[in-house]
Write a structure and sequence with these properties.
about 260 residues, alpha/beta, TIM Barrel, eight-stranded parallel beta barrel, 11 helices, about 40% helix, binds 3-methyl-2-oxobutanoic acid
């Protein structure tokens, strides 16, 4: 498979080929996703919920994002690695956004993602001007959790369309649509030239993204829009219980595991 690039991702929309995207936070899962043929690997600030045991994505630092981006970029050969700009690393000015994005690009990302539409237009323009490809993110933007008042489906059609168009005209190469009614996501997808990547946005987006650990059944609670393709949490729990019971009963290590 050829290496995924921003222009190739744009071609996928023209060819009506759906884009497959997932999150990863380390080299091991990065390699597995890459070998399975995923187009885009997002080093998401969902690392907060998935690995750091936090309720929101707000505390994640730029240094932490750079660290996880380095791990993922080390093992991904084909897929496009996109890293999330964390909360507080780009909101104060477009210049701050460029400085923060440079840290993630130097860590191995090919592009950055940031949350917000109209209000982020100038920031996206400045990043694109600095040759940093940007993936937008509109609809439910988890970094705005306090302003939005909770993780709720975003139903304001005019606002969604305005935000998505602003992201496109600022020069982003794609946009994530999170937690929006399927019909609205379909309208936005039809109106834009850049690909839309949906999460809880129905099947008529140009691509889909999920948090890897939700798909694998490794999170205690997954949102309604996440489909579980495996129950690894149960597998891990059973394996650890079997190990504990073997150790306690003196069955492990056996002679084959001993020198
Ligand atoms: O951080 C993340 O994982 C994300 C995706 C869910 C889109 O932003």
């Amino acid at each position: 498979m050829p290496v995924m690039t921003v222009p190739r991702l744009l071609e996928k929309k023209l060819r009506r080929e759906r884009i497959v995207a997932l999150t990863a936070y380390d080299a091991g899962f990065g390699a597995l996703l890459d070998q399975a043929g995923v187009d885009l690997v997002l080093v998401g600030d969902s690392v907060a919920n998935v690995l750091q045991g936090l309720e929101t994505t707000l505390p994640v630092s730029l240094e932490e994002m750079a660290y996880h981006t380095r791990l993922v970029a080390r093992s991904v050969r084909q897929a496009l690695v996109v890293a999330d700009l964390p909360f507080g690393s780009y909101q104060t000015s477009p210049e701050e956004a460029v400085r923060s994005a440079v840290v993630l690009i130097k860590a191995g990302a090919a592009a950055v993602k940031l949350e917000g539409g109209v209000r982020m237009q100038a920031t996206i323009e400045r990043l694109v001007e600095a040759d940093i490809p940007v993936l937008g993110h509109v609809g439910l933007t988890p970094q705005s959790i306090h302003a939005l008042g909770g993780y709720k489906v975003q139903r304001d059609a005019k606002r969604l369309m305005r935000d998505a168009r602003a992201v496109q005209s600022a020069g982003a190469f794609g946009v994530v649509l999170e937690a929006v009614p399927a019909r609205l996501a379909a309208e936005v997808t039809a109106a834009l030239k850049i690909p839309t990547i949906g999460i809880g946005a129905g099947k008529r987006c140009d691509g889909q993204i999920l948090v890897l650990h939700d798909l694998l059944g490794l999170t205690a609670r997954a949102p309604k829009f996440a489909k579980r393709y495996a129950s690894l949490g149960e597998t891990v729990s059973a394996a650890v219980k079997a190990y504990a019971s073997d150790v306690r009963a003196g069955r492990f290590p056996g002679s084959e595991h001993s020198f």
